[in-house]
Write a structure and sequence with these properties.
The protein is an alpha+beta fold. The chain has 9 helices and 3 strands; from the N terminus they run H-E-E-H-H-H-H-H-E-H-H-H. Strands 2-1-3 form a 3-stranded antiparallel sheet. A hairpin with a 2-residue loop joins strand 1 and strand 2. The longest helix has 24 residues.
């Protein structure tokens, strides 16, 4: 059984790890591993852990194709909304924050992508990435990536929702609150992730959440945290 403390220790441990260790990248770099996991931070997003303020992790991802991690990072910073779901979601949120009502204008994400890919909006997205996002990376074997990503997004989404429900986390004017995703997964989880997010009832305690042990367990959390600690890019 996964208890509150297990998830808290895991998520808080990764925040402390990324605060104390690893290289903070502000753009794609030649120092990145061929395969790995990234965690993104965003200007203005903070989280308090053990009375200390840390940069809050707002996005978790991997390279799905082998040996493609540097290219994956470049695709987020300088690619297109058709090649990066991260960029797609940021672009939509930017339009919504400007009062341009993308849902009314485009109706669907598919139509939004077709009409904006490679256009002026891409430059705004790229500028936002350059000015607002930084990241840290972990060198992880490719055959572990999908499993680790699922565990990370599950745990972080549960943890953030729980702290939001308890008024222990303030997203402030986070751009993600202007996002559009299935079941509002981005807004509700506090992550620029939609796939892999586990939604919880705001009346539940972490002890009451029914978590599939095939996805997340205490032993898996401990193994992932240990591997990340040993392989953060310096």
């Amino acid at each position: 059984m996964v208890l509150q403390g297990d998830i808290c220790n895991f998520v808080e441990g990764i925040h402390i790890l990324t605060s104390e260790k690893g290289t903070l990248f502000k753009s794609p770099s030649h120092d990145l591993p061929l395969n790995g996991i990234y965690v993104f931070f965003e200007t203005g997003q903070k989280i308090v852990i053990e009375s200390e303020e840390h940069n809050r992790i707002v996005r978790i991802g991997i390279n799905e194709k082998p040996d493609n991690f540097p290219s994956r990072i470049r695709g987020h910073y300088k690619g297109t909304i058709e090649g990066s779901v991260f960029r797609e979601n940021v672009g939509w949120a930017l339009l919504e924050s400007y009062g341009k009502r993308p849902l009314e204008n485009y109706k669907t994400k598919s139509n939004y992508r077709k009409r904006n890919s490679g256009g002026p909006l891409e430059r705004e997205i790229s500028n936002y990435f350059s000015n607002a996002f930084t990241f840290k990376a972990f060198k992880i074997d490719h055959d572990k990536l999908a499993t680790y990503e699922e565990i990370l997004i599950s745990a972080f989404s549960i943890y953030y929702q729980y702290r939001l429900f308890k008024n222990q986390l303030d997203l402030g004017d986070w751009l993600g609150l202007h996002s559009y995703s299935k079941q509002n997964r981005i807004k509700r989880s506090g992550l620029w992730n939609s796939e892999g997010v586990i939604l919880i009832d705001n009346s539940a305690s972490l002890e009451e959440i029914n978590i599939d042990k095939k996805i997340i367990s205490n032993s898996k959390l401990e193994a992932v945290l240990e591997d990340l600690t040993q392989n953060i890019v310096k």
